[in-house]
Write a structure and sequence with these properties.
The complex is a heterodimer. By secondary structure, chain A is α/β, with parallel strands linked by helices. Chain A has helices at about 25-30, 50-60, 75-80, 85-90, 105-110, 115-125, 145-160, 185-195, 210-215, 230-240, 255-270, 275-295, 315-325, 340-355, 365-375, 385-390, 420-435, 440-445; strands spanning about 40-45, 65-70, 100-105, 130-135, 170-175, 200-205, 220-225, 245, 305-310, 330-335, 360, 380-385, 400. Chain B contains 12 helices and 8 strands. The model of chain B has no long low-confidence stretch (mean pLDDT about 90). The chains are: A alpha/beta, B alpha/beta.
Chain lengths: ~450, ~280
């Protein structure tokens, strides 16, 4: 047999284009599983159920309380469509003691045209619980896009339009769109601050959120976005459809001294709780500094060390100021997982304000991160386990694993937000500094 | 067993060519199975006396509805034997508006394979009549999965039919790298402008690196046979047209060459080639 053209070259093996983020289906599952007393039905092949399991862990769901279902699509449903199977599966779940069933569609059924919205509308009269279809095929984008898609579906299907505004109240948006693996502690810290300021949380979108909370989300006076990566569309919708004003918009989330102070002050001003905010700042800074005096963190050894930040925007953007001001390092590289306009604007404002000009990579993947690390040659990287491998052989002395650690077990949630959060981050730096001295290479080189 | 696939622009006459080819091969003593790979399931209509035969995916869907799988399908219900002795199969497709027809065609072919249809009927030549164009990856699956080994392109002197053939050649080039599949030749099904076609189609075939196999003229005999629900070798066995299809059948039986084509990458180049022959005419 003749060949008209030679085979295409295979990509060079060192080019790892692995994305940091999972797909939209995963983000939607993360969001749906944050609604208490509900169940999730994945209209997908069974492999996608893995993403649901992962989202289940991210929301710290209890398997005794939360049910997940899957239509387990096979080739027959791709050929003929899977609407009949979806109908059967929903009807099999009709006696479950739940308040809502979220139906999530994966790539396969959306490609072949399954209409989950029509199926849900048809079956709704037969069911005691609410059916909420979320068209979140993985190809629609990253997990952060999936969070936006799911929030949009929830707000449009579940939030009641009527209802009076509750004074001094907020709706918290997208606390789970955060690469801090213990983000639930960040949310708890925010709730604690709000309680001290006398601000009521009407609804959290989403974490252990009862359906009734979601239904009354429109009665909040303000919205508070807890992510720079997702949720802005939900905040905009609440503003446009329900007149809910967004507070602390355009300010980096409260990681580090200055960011925390700015965020608390803006919150206090909006809710007429300036004095409370002021005392929280004073007491927080005193506690953080007193603790540092007593515990002697080794942060001082990193003075003016070239550093890189590789994270999502939620953690990454506030870290720029933390690394610069609190750690007194020099950020030479900022690589963020996402790239939307709001992320670019916020980071550029921060860099201008700090008078910094690092290399910036938006929407980075593992290969681009490694290339950027090779070019900028930082000594310290604030990132994840992935950068520990991606920086191999590049002369990076320390990788401070602050985001989305893989295969590491976290029993206790610890926040990055606020003043205790600063100490938690110092602790990460300190432990990395100590562990570097215990490296195998250095141990064998040492004279015993 | 020889496995050939007929591709080409929609409406170019693939089913006409495939059916008449099947009939000519059958007349030569070959055991032939023609498989229509189009959800419209009209490939075998001429050979079935002008009727539509039941489709594999229809039967598949019925079995699924009663909780059974493809192994419950009986070959007798999906393979139809024409009065002339040609085995006919229509893949069919899902209900309009749902499912994936491309994947459906592959499923139908897989069912035939799993049920040992080719061995059961002792098939010498399988002819896959694939729908209009390789509109998505699904419709290239007969090539990708190795059901079709020799690809024949059908085109006329119309520019868009050559454009479509070039696109299909691109799919063959891509998929041919996977295994023992390649382009075996081009058949011209004339639209009436013979002078142009006799110039441009051989040149196009040469440019793709393949053979120009047969010229089939526009003829009222072929159309009359279609209207009667009969192939030309049966309807007008002594006609010039019948001899043309016999020649085509002989050429295909004798052929053992297939190439990975070299399609034209730029539309401008294709247009230039076409214009050159248009001027010469």
């Amino acid at each position: 047999m003749e060949h008209g053209r030679s085979r295409r070259k295979t990509p060079e093996p060192e080019k790892c284009r692995d994305p940091y983020l999972r797909c939209a289906f995963h983000g939607a599952a993360q969001t749906a599983l944050g609604v208490a007393g509900s169940a999730l039905l994945a209209h997908s092949p069974q492999g996608c159920e893995y993403l649901v399991n992962n989202a289940f862990a991210w929301q710290a769901c209890d398997y005794m309380e939360v049910i997940t279902l899957c239509t387990k699509l096979c080739v027959d449903e791709i050929v003929h469509g899977g609407e009949e199977l979806l109908e059967r599966t929903i009807l099999e779940a009709k006696d479950l003691p739940i308040s809502a069933l979220f139906v999530l569609s994966a790539c396969g059924p959306e490609i072949v045209g399954d209409d989950i919205v029509a199926v849900c509308e048809t079956l709704q009269p037969e069911l005691k619980f609410r059916l909420i279809p979320i068209e979140c095929a993985g190809f629609r984008g990253s997990q952060y896009d999936g969070i936006d898609i799911a929030l949009d579906a929830m707000l449009k299907h579940l939030v009641n339009r009527s209802g009076e505004k509750i004074p001094n109240s907020v709706c918290l948006i997208a606390p789970h769109a955060n690469a801090n693996p213990t983000w639930i502690a960040d949310l708890d810290w925010v709730k604690g601050v709000l309680a001290q300021m006398g601000i009521r949380v009407v609804a959290t979108l989403t974490h252990r959120t009862p359906l009734a909370e979601l239904e009354h989300a429109a009665s909040a006076e303000a919205s508070l976005l807890l992510s720079h990566d997702a949720g802005q569309k939900a905040a905009d919708h609440l503003s446009a459809a329900h007149g809910i004003e967004q507070v602390c918009g355009g300010i980096p989330l409260p990681i580090g001294m200055t960011n925390t102070e700015r965020w608390l002050t803006a919150l206090g001003e909006r809710f007429d709780a300036q004095k409370t905010a002021e005392s929280m700042v004073v007491e927080g800074e005193r506690m953080a500094m007193a603790t540092c005096r007593r515990k002697w963190p080794m942060a001082r050894f990193f003075y003016r060390t070239p550093a890189a930040i590789v994270a999502d925007a939620t953690v990454g953007i506030p870290l720029v100021r933390f690394v610069t001001e609190d750690m007194e390092m020099t950020p030479d590289l900022v690589a963020l997982y996402t790239s939307q306009r709001s992320v670019r604007d916020l980071l550029e404002r921060e860099l201008d304000d700090l008078d910094l000009a690092p290399t910036v990579v938006y929407g980075t993947d593992v290969y681009r991160t490694r290339q950027a690390l090779a070019e900028t040659k930082p000594k310290v990287v604030f990132g994840s386990t992935i950068e520990r491998h991606a920086s191999e052989g590049l002369g990076v002395s320390h990788v401070v694993e602050v985001v989305k650690m893989m295969r590491q077990f976290r029993m206790i949630d610890r926040e990055y937000f606020g003043y205790t959060g600063i100490l938690d981050l110092f602790e990460c730096v300190q432990n990395e500094w100590t562990m570097a001295w215990r490296s195998r290479e250095k141990r064998y080189e040492a004279r015993w | 067993m020889k496995q050939i696939a007929i591709y080409g622009k929609g409406g170019i006459g693939k089913s006409t060519i495939a059916s008449n080819l099947s009939a000519a091969l059958n007349e030569m003593g070959q055991t032939v199975m023609q498989v229509g790979c189009d959800p419209k399931r009209d490939s075998t209509r001429i050979l079935a006396g002008g009727r539509f035969i039941p489709a594999v995916l229809e039967e598949h869907r019925e079995k699924l509805r009663v909780g059974k799988d493809e192994y419950a399908i009986d070959l007798d219900r999906i393979v139809y034997r024409s009065p002339g002795g040609i085995y006919l199969v229509e893949a069919g497709g899902p209900e309009p508006g749902v499912g994936c027809a491309g994947r459906g065609v592959l499923t139908a072919l897989q069912i035939l394979k799993d049920l040992d249809a080719f061995e059961t009927y002792g098939i010498d030549v399988a002819i896959y009549d694939v729908l209009g164009d390789v509109v998505c990856g699904g419709f290239s699956m007969p090539i990708r999965e190795g059901f079709a080994r020799e690809i024949y392109l059908v085109c006329s002197g119309g520019f868009m039919s050559i454009y479509a053939a070039n696109n299909i050649a691109r799919a063959v080039q891509r998929l041919g790298l996977r295994g023992d599949t390649g382009l075996a030749g081009i058949v011209c099904n004339s639209n009436g402008d013979e002078a142009l076609e006799r110039a441009v189609i051989p040149a196009f075939a040469q440019r793709l690196g393949t053979a120009f196999v047969q010229f089939v003229p526009r003829s009222p005999v072929i159309q009359a046979g279609e209207m009667e629900g009969r192939a030309v070798v049966e309807y007008a066995p002594d006609s010039r047209e019948a001899e043309i299809f016999r020649n085509l059948a002989r050429a295909i039986l004798a052929n053992d060459t297939r190439v990975i084509p070299t399609p034209i990458a730029e539309l401008a180049e294709l247009e230039t080639m076409y214009r050159e022959h248009l001027v010469k005419k």
